[in-house]
Write a structure and sequence with these properties.
Oligomer: single chain
Number of domains: 2
Largest sheet: 7 strands, mixed
CATH superfamily of the largest domain: Vaccinia Virus protein VP39
Number of helices: 12
CATH topology of the largest domain: Rossmann fold
Strand content: 15-25%
CATH class of the largest domain: Alpha Beta
Helix content: 25-40%
Number of strands: 9
Structural class: alpha/beta
Length: 276
């Protein structure tokens, strides 16, 4: 099967791994699954054997045609489209349920796809995704670890992410230069639980992690928040004055955001740096 490197194509041919991915998403009886980048259809085959319907989103025209010829349309709908443009909400409404998602994500747009899924979380139930091992390390990292950072918090704000297994390069054609890790992501947003605003809290988190080597306090000061407010908010959130963002759990970052928002609300004439 011809490969188009510019599309980041690495086709999984490990039969055991294909079955593990299909079973890792859980019971598919009566469910609709969206597959991101089905490629040659190996995982699609395993999903279609278990699910009521598979929506295969494939950007490559030649592969989309192959998939349409191979699979019956009543079991697999092939959508020739960039997944970043795919309407998960419409697909969910058509299915009458929150969707399951499976995908071997192209390495060059992994972060963009994760953000797309996060933005579509209301239409999604859970996902089993394959990404570069180092990216999976960051996605599933816990506070205080070397890999914990902006990506960890961004993903985990929308629900728990769990590493499942890692595959070597020889599991793919052509073999990539890296190992790949499969992880499961359940869409259970924490914004209400944490009492934070879904629109502004993610921007605040980006400010917290703006420069990894800087302390949390320095990053917030660089974002334009008055030093006295930062100091008081850190104390209120029970975060050490010299702590870096990488040691702060999501709950602590939420407490810090709430403290700063309370201060801003009490001083309405001050500019909100998160809105800039």
């Amino acid at each position: 099967m011809p490969v188009k490197p510019k599309l980041g194509q690495n086709f999984l041919h490990d039969a055991d791994a294909i079955q593990r991915i299909a079973t890792s998403i859980g019971d598919l009886t009566g469910r609709t699954v969206v597959e991101i980048g089905p490629g040659g259809g190996a995982i699609t085959e395993a999903l279609a054997a278990r699910a009521a319907h598979v929506v295969a989103v494939e950007l490559d025209h030649d592969l989309a045609i192959r998939l349409q010829v191979h699979f019956p349309p009543d079991r697999v709908t092939v959508v020739e489209q960039d997944v970043l443009q795919f309407d998960f909400k419409a697909a969910s409404e058509a299915a009458g349920e929150r969707l399951l998602v499976v995908g071997n994500l192209p390495y060059n747009i992994t972060s963009q796809i994760l953000l797309k899924l996060a933005a579509s979380q209301a239409s999604l139930d859970r996902a089993v995704l394959m990404v570069q091992r180092e990216v999976a390390d960051r996605i599933t990292a816990q506070p205080g670890s070397r890999d914990y950072g902006l990506l960890s918090v961004t993903v985990q704000m929308y629900g728990p992410a769990q590493r499942l297994f890692t595959l070597p390069p020889e599991s793919f054609t052509p073999p990539p230069d890296v190992h790949s890790t499969v992880f499961r992501w359940r869409f259970e947003p924490r914004f209400a639980e944490l009492n934070v605003d879904e629109a502004t809290f993610p921007r605040f988190v980006r400010q917290c992690f703006a420069q990894k080597r800087k302390t949390l306090a320095n990053n917030l000061r660089a974002a334009g928040i008055p030093p006295a407010d930062v100091t008081a908010a850190l104390a209120q959130a029970e975060i050490a004055p010299q702590a870096r963002a990488e040691v702060a759990p999501i709950g602590a970052l939420a407490a810090l955001w709430r403290a700063l928002e309370a201060k801003r609300a009490a001083s309405p004439d001050e500019v909100d740096p998160s809105s800039e």
